Structure formats: structure tokens, C-alpha cells
């Protein structure tokens, strides 16, 4: 058993530098301002450039900095508030819903989602893909899973695409809402979600799983992946999502 007193462990140099840089961002720089180059910052704080890069990478992960090719490192705007309270996070496809559908197609859901929908392993559901953007940049991606009891096939349905997704959302709106439950956890972006969110695979993300209930059963379930560097989740009854348009 490790009996060391972690309170006495020396703080890593890059973490101490990250603290100093955070204070500078709060007092000396404004949103969108370009930071001095690495050589100047390393000289200012008396650290090696490798240590500086570690601190800058940490602040980028935390959403305090943005690195732009051809521009440099700039101070990032505050995180966008995303209100997850039921009054603001209503059923998918409602009027004013800020999510944009991109595609839909039938496929088996992941095992965890199949359990949420009370479906046997290997059962097929409709999977609707949606994105959420702000200022023209994607901040979240979602897979919405709709079981066949809610989404009967239509003879003229296209095989996949936004048109099919919109029809499914209209069918979902016909269900009588009876509540929803939601869980939030920290995760890492898969290769697919990282591509959709313009991030590197393994970047920290916030995973929000929602179950939509109707008449004693689950009408749909969704797994939404939010960029942890640009989003902060709130649970107050306030319209924080109104800024998420694009």
C-alpha cells in the first residue's frame, strides 16, 4: 500500500506554469487576443519550451486557449452554457430544436442502448444522427435511437438521409411525453466523434445519455457527445441553448 503523503509531493513544473498562465489570461489578455510566441513565453517564465508546451496543451484541453494554423495561440471565449433541464431539453424535433439532422438509417444499437430500450441483443432500431453548432463550429454530436414500435417503416422512405430522419422525428412527436431521465459522464472522443467535432481522438468529451419515456415504455434514447473544451452543462431552467445556432 502506498503510504506517501501526496500533499507533500512537488507540483509538476508544467502544472505550476499552467496556474501562472491562467492568472495571466484572466488579468492581461482578452478573448481572441494572440499570445506571444513560445520563445517569448518560455523566456518570460524561465522554463524550457517543452514545459511550456505541456502547459499550453493543458489549457487548450480545458478550453482556455485555441490554436489556429496561421494565426497562433489565442484566448478562447467562455464555454457555451448548455441547459439540460427538462424544460429546455424537450423531446427531439420540437419547434425551436437547435439540433440539425444529418442522416438516419436502421442498425443494431450498442448493447448499453439496447438495454435502455429493453430490446434483445441484435435488434434493429432507427439511428438518427444530429449535430449542434455555435458560431459555425460543431460543439456536439448525437445518435438518437428510435425503436420500431415508434417508427414503423414507410414504403417510400429513402434508405437513409435527412428526409428519413425528419419523418422519424415527426413520428416521435406523436408520442405522449411521460418524462425523461438523463445521465452525464466524462469520456474520450472516438475516432468517429472526433472527426465530427473537429477534435483529436481521445480528446475529453461530456457524454449525455437521455431516455425519453411514453405510456410506460421508452420511446427513444439518445447519446450526445459534447466538446468538453467549449461546453459547460447546466441544470437550471434557463434558455442556455438559444445561442447554439448555426
TrEMBL record:
GO BP annotations, alphabetical order: negative regulation of DNA-templated transcription
Gene3D superfamilies documented for this protein: Chorismate lyase-like (3.40.1410.10), Winged helix-like DNA-binding domain superfamily/Winged helix DNA-binding domain (1.10.10.10)
The protein's name in its UniProt record: DNA-binding transcriptional regulator, GntR family
UniProt domain HTH gntR-type: residue ranges: 11-78
Keyword Manganese recorded: no
Alphabetical list of Pfam families matching this protein: GntR (PF00392), UTRA (PF07702)
Family annotation (SMART domains): HTH_GNTR, UTRA
Molecular function as annotated in GO: DNA binding; DNA-binding transcription factor activity
Keyword annotations of the record: DNA-binding, Transcription, Transcription regulation
CDD domains referenced in this protein's UniProt entry, alphabetically: WHTH_GntR (cd07377)
Top-level division of the source organism's lineage: Bacteria
SUPFAM superfamilies in UniProt: Chorismate lyase-like (SSF64288), Winged helix' DNA-binding domain (SSF46785)
Signal sequence bounds: none
Amino acid at each position: 500500500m502506498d503510504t506517501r503523503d501526496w500533499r507533500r509531493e512537488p507540483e509538476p513544473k508544467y502544472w505550476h506554469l499552467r496556474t501562472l498562465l491562467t492568472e495571466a489570461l484572466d488579468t492581461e489578455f482578452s478573448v481572441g487576443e494572440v499570445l506571444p510566441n513560445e520563445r517569448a513565453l518560455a523566456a518570460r517564465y524561465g522554463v524550457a519550451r517543452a514545459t511550456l508546451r505541456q502547459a499550453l496543451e493543458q489549457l487548450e484541453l480545458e478550453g482556455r486557449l485555441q490554436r489556429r494554423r496561421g494565426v497562433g495561440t489565442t484566448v478562447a471565449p467562455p464555454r457555451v452554457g448548455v441547459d439540460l433541464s427538462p424544460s429546455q431539453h424537450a423531446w427531439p424535433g420540437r419547434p425551436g430544436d437547435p439540433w440539425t439532422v444529418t442522416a438516419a438509417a436502421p442498425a443494431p444499437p450498442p448493447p448499453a442502448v439496447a438495454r435502455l430500450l429493453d430490446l434483445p441483443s441484435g435488434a434493429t432500431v432507427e439511428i438518427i444522427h444530429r449535430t449542434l453548432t455555435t458560431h459555425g463550429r460543431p460543439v456536439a454530436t448525437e445518435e438518437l435511437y428510435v425503436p420500431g414500435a415508434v417508427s414503423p417503416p414507410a414504403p417510400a422512405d429513402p434508405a437513409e438521409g435527412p428526409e428519413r430522419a425528419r419523418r422519424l422525428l415527426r413520428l416521435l412527436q406523436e408520442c405522449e411525453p411521460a418524462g425523461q431521465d438523463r445521465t452525464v459522464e466524462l469520456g474520450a472522443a472516438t475516432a468517429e466523434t472526433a472527426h465530427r467535432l473537429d477534435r483529436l481522438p481521445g480528446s475529453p468529451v461530456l457524454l449525455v445519455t437521455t431516455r425519453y419515456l411514453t405510456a410506460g415504455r421508452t420511446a427513444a434514447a439518445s447519446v450526445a457527445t459534447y466538446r468538453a473544451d467549449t461546453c459547460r452543462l447546466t441544470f437550471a431552467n434557463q434558455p442556455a441553448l438559444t445561442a447554439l445556432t448555426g
